[in-house]
Amino acid sequence: MASIKLKTVDTRAPKKLNKETIKKETQKLKFKIEELQNLLYAEGKHAMLVVLQGMDASGKDGTIRNVFGAANPMGCRVVAFKKPTELEMKHDFLWRVHSQVPEKGMIHIFNRSHYEDVLIQRVHNWVDAKTIKQRFAHINNFEKLLVENNTVVIKFYLHISKEEQLGRLQERMSDPAKMWKYNEQDLQEREEWDSYMKAYEDVFANCEEAAKWQVIPADQNWYKEYLIAQRVVEELEALKMKFPGLKPANS
Amino acid sequence: MASIKLKTVDTRAPKKLNKETIKKETQKLKFKIEELQNLLYAEGKHAMLVVLQGMDASGKDGTIRNVFGAANPMGCRVVAFKKPTELEMKHDFLWRVHSQVPEKGMIHIFNRSHYEDVLIQRVHNWVDAKTIKQRFAHINNFEKLLVENNTVVIKFYLHISKEEQLGRLQERMSDPAKMWKYNEQDLQEREEWDSYMKAYEDVFANCEEAAKWQVIPADQNWYKEYLIAQRVVEELEALKMKFPGLKPANS
User: Structural domain boundaries of chain B?
Assistant: First the structure.
């Protein structure tokens, strides 16, 4: 996805699409995810890692609830990467991430990820340009390691407009059921919007050696969920999995 | 639950119950679980640990899929305890378990648990009576620690009949979609049925200081799922949770 300019990518669905039709499609895709995930678990030959990145309120949590909520929790685990602990800070940036990757049979969803170390850290100049460049290389090598160990790595950037984000943050300030999600810092981060967009564009240009990024128009949840469910199904179907037969004795 | 005799406990639902009515009730309970779990996550004051124990094919996996499948995977994690690794064996028996307990806001479901160390290990005489007695005390202390840290601990024993188990194991041998679950060892463990029942009865008699056991008639999935969903809802409602308001600045 070399040299993509996020400003030129729509944050909304194409006008010709019908919301209700798409929602029905998504429902079918969710049943397929449930079925394919069971097969992934039963076969135990592959793993899947889904990386969710996006600005605050871009809909990462909602994606997890609405797309992966259908999956059996036995085979599906969510890992949220928040501000690193003191111990984590004393390790290399991939240490806490590596320990959380899926074993064969499992789908893990990263709610934020190792990419924060080349996004927020870069935007605030907590690390220098040389370190960022090194990290890009380490991320590529790390993802290659996973892919070569039969892990399907899918990376989504949830692309919302700055205006849509403001609306959602304001909702968090006024809806009692959403206030717990509000963080004063979110508005401060919003000030850095353009720097974040630039940092994401650099990530897309530099971190695709092992797994491609997909930019998801995310202003409308129904379209976002459809695209993500569709990609997950495609990737799982491509594995051409089969139920294994009976284990040989004493295996 | 002092001195319960499992032989005297029915493995089936009371005859007067109507399956279809109960299934509708369960569906309502599942919506409540989804709602209450979101509140648990948002409030972040309590955690919930659900321990699932039972003989092979007693329906632990199905419980996870059908009762907890409704929950948002962001707030709900399944931990399966299998044969300990070499490293785990070099630690005390609670070491691998303690690291997997839920933090506040989360529901963790243990698919088997620390109780295996006073069940399978006892049935096969891998540990002596003195060790079992010590472990009972350690389990009580461990669960007390969790409870005092605001974790609701719920322990279910899925009670199936020996005949029902045989039918299910045979199904695993013949249904291609279930063969991956079949393990030759299951039939060997079945030979020890009475010893297992005795070991479970001892567990109930000795490990209730911090959290009670509930014996779930489990020959019929619809009844099993109803009872478990009902208990989970009851326990979550008893917490009288509320959405927190806006965080104070700089918190």
Answer: 13-237
